Amino acid sequence: AQRVTQPEKLLSVFKGAPVELKCNYSYSGSPELFWYVQYSRQRLQLLLRHISRESIKGFTADLNKGETSFHLKKPFAQEEDSAMYYCALSKDNNDMRFGAGTRLTVKP
Amino acid sequence: GAGVSQTPSNKVTEKGKYVELRCDPISGHTALYWYRQSLGQGPEFLIYFQGTGAADDSGLPNDRFFAVRPEGSVSTLKIQRTERGDSAVYLCASSPRLVDEQFFGPGTRLTVL
After folding, report:
1. Which residues does A64 contact at the CB level (< 8 Å), separation at least 6?
2. Number of Cβ atoms within 10 Å of the Cβ of B104
3. Interface membership of A29 toward B (CB under 8 Å)
4. Over the stretch B44-70, which tens digit does the pLDDT of each residue have?
5. What residues have CB less than 8 Å from B112, skipping those under 6 apart?
6. Nearest by CB to A98, which of B43, B55, B107?
7. Which of A6, A46, A95 sits opposite B101 (nearest CB)?
């Protein structure tokens, strides 16, 4: 069965500090992993997907199959990064499975 | 252009009643998805459509839930004999085709009293 675990419900850092949002998954096949973000009073939107290997808004995420992790990282957090972040897994980008989410607060 | 829209934005109903939630996808998007998000949880997959057909409805919790997309565009999620546990935000998303980025709507907040 597919499962996504985000161990931290809340994460608070100061502006300019590095940030890492953890995501672990369980899936027996080759998963596609995603990070979605929801800013205050906005819709859920795609931040990045592992297959693209992009850096979006300074965020990166590396798929570690050995540790079954897909942690989201940014070297210098900004106040506008404050949002709800969801890690998601899909075997074909259709029946997406989301984690419970981590609320990131970047303090000035 | 217009994004995914969902109506109503809020729906309050009584236990046992029937409700319909509507989703208007982005024009031209062939894939459409329904999710349910309970308080403090991530979105939970319910069903997705490719065109008019339900390609995967394995996430529907029971036979009180049903969804249609008769013309391959607008979709309606139907819940019969609502229960208090059905209270949640119901999200709809669409994508140009399968395996593309999903674009989410604002959601419908359903409250069952």
Report:
1. A70, A71
2. 22
3. no
4. 999 999 888 888 898 999 999 999 999
5. B13, B14, B15, B17, B82, B83, B84, B85, B86, B87
6. B43
7. A46
